[in-house]
Amino acid sequence: MSKLALWGGTPVRETAIPWTNTMGEEEKAAVVKVMESGNLSAFLARAGEQFLGGPRIKEIEAMFAGKFGAKHSISVNSATTALHTALAACEVGPGDEVLVTPYTMSATASAILMNNAVPVFVDICSETYNLNPKEIEKWLTPRTKAIIVTNLFGLPGNLPEIIKIAKQHGLYVIEDNAQAPGATIDGKQAGTFGDLGIFSLNYHKVIHSGEGGIILTDSDKLAYHCQLIRNHGEVVVDDLNDEDTVVLGSNYRMTELHAAIGIEQLIKLDGFLNMRRALADQLTRGLKRFKGLKGVTVPKGYEHSYYVYPIQFNKDIWTIKRAVFAAAMKAEGFPLGEGYVKPIYLMKIYQHKRVYNQTQYPFSFIDKPVQGYQKGICPVVEEMHEEKLIIADVCRMPYTARDIDDFLTAIEKVWQGKEELRAYEKNSLSCS
């Protein structure tokens, strides 16, 4: 057995895999063309043609709508502002509750607070890490207005079942599809199942323009509301003498520069996904030879985008803690994430219920809250965060099939050295 790198042995990989710039000559040429035009943003916050932006904005919106099969596409400057816009378009506000997974980027829940509503957290499925439809009913109240479904790690949630429940109770469904562009269920694109779907162009997503977001919807009314919220819509409804629409807008506009980059990246999406899926398939097959490590589960009819690759670690089989395994893998040249994110409801903002200065609004707006954000309300999420889940960011450029083989070799090396690691862990605990 080779000496573990943790003890000074030669690591499987001696140099870290770098982050790779996916920008090419196409993106450079597109940016130069916009720069030379002198028109970096063509939005005007008044009723009229420029209210909807310039030529690249309209082009990227048309391309997203066509690519994913939606009637309307609305570009914004981030997926975070897209979430806020989508909730506001659904008229979510004070006194409302929105169901959401606690295992997602904080903005998915923060957008609810920004609309002065209250998040209610729903536990996840242990196989897919997505919101569990069977957990929805127990959190529903007359105040529930919407459900946000995060398609986590690149895998769509159980959207058919969630939408069925939502329709029974008259709820909006918003898909946070930031991590799963190109993922599908029975051929239908993730991000197009709900009333609105959110896509991200943040710099570390599958495709990106540095920052940016896209909202997809088939609803004329919701699209109109999103366009208003994006661009100081209170002025526009005043211009139009629209007495029926209530809106408070902001500047959530995407620039022509970001749109130009996003257009070229969207063209490359299928190629990026093919590469990610090939690496992920290789990794899934390779993990099957290891006890105590469970690779991705993809339900029948689903296609994964592999934003990252989640692995479940079984400490009882490995006889070491996840942190020790991760430390050993890092020493071999493969750093891993442990547990993804802390369950959102355990963050201080929810524990203290402090959002706006020293008040407890919007939590205080609800007399009898359905959820107290105490530890234990979502046990599957907590178990994944504290003990089981490992995140491997290895299914992206510039990783190759050889790198996946090296990753699996590193696992084998750590497995062979687990007895030493167990002794190391025991001694460390006895000294602490």
UniProtKB/TrEMBL annotation:
InterPro entries from the entry? Answer: DegT/StrS_aminotransferase (IPR000653), PyrdxlP-dep_Trfase (IPR015424), PyrdxlP-dep_Trfase_major (IPR015421), PyrdxlP-dep_Trfase_small (IPR015422)
CDD domains from the xrefs? AHBA_syn
- Per UniProt, which keywords does this protein have? Aminotransferase, Pyridoxal phosphate, Transferase
* Highest taxon listed in the record's lineage: Bacteria
MF annotations from Gene Ontology: transaminase activity
The answer to whether UniProt assigns keyword ATP-binding to this entry is no
Q: Which family does it belong to?
A: Belongs to the DegT/DnrJ/EryC1 family.
Q: What is this protein called?
A: DegT/DnrJ/EryC1/StrS family aminotransferase
**The species this protein was found in:** Desulfosporosinus nitroreducens
